[in-house]
Specification:
The longest helix has 8 residues. Helix content is 12%, strand content 39%. The chain is mainly beta. A 5-stranded antiparallel beta sheet has the order 4-3-2-1-5. The protein is elongated, with a radius of gyration of 21 Å. It has a single domain, classed as Thrombin, subunit H (Beta Barrel), CATH 2.40.10.
Length: 104
């Protein structure tokens, strides 16, 4: 089994913006896309912790957004490996034809 690329220090990861920034700030900046916006970051530290007989893995990553740098410590499941995918473009508008005849 291949090792998890998220556990390599210096690896590129992405996470939801609402996990990195505050939800209010995300709503102001990204509007209706605040729940789906992804940010790219770089792993700076990896922690494997055992608490009450339960293992957990925490990553610390550095996220650079315009005019600000965030360093966040989040659980492994909040991160995805590699850069964030490009957002899908909305479909082009289709011309609608009305069934009623137009009278000029």
């Amino acid at each position: 089994m291949a090792p998890d690329p998220r556990l390599v220090i210096g690896a590129t990861v992405h996470a939801k913006a609402k996990h990195v920034r505050s939800p209010v700030e995300c709503a102001k900046v990204y509007g209706s896309l605040s729940n789906v916006k992804m940010l790219n970051g770089t792993v700076t530290a990896v922690e494997r912790v055992m608490t009450s007989k339960q293992h957990s893995t925490w990553l610390t990553a550095r996220f650079e957004v315009p005019n600000k740098v965030y360093v966040k410590r989040l659980g492994l499941l909040n991160f995805r490996a590699g850069p964030a995918p490009d957002p899908a473009l909305p479909p082009p508008p289709t011309p609608t034809s009305s069934s009623a005849p137009r009278i000029a």
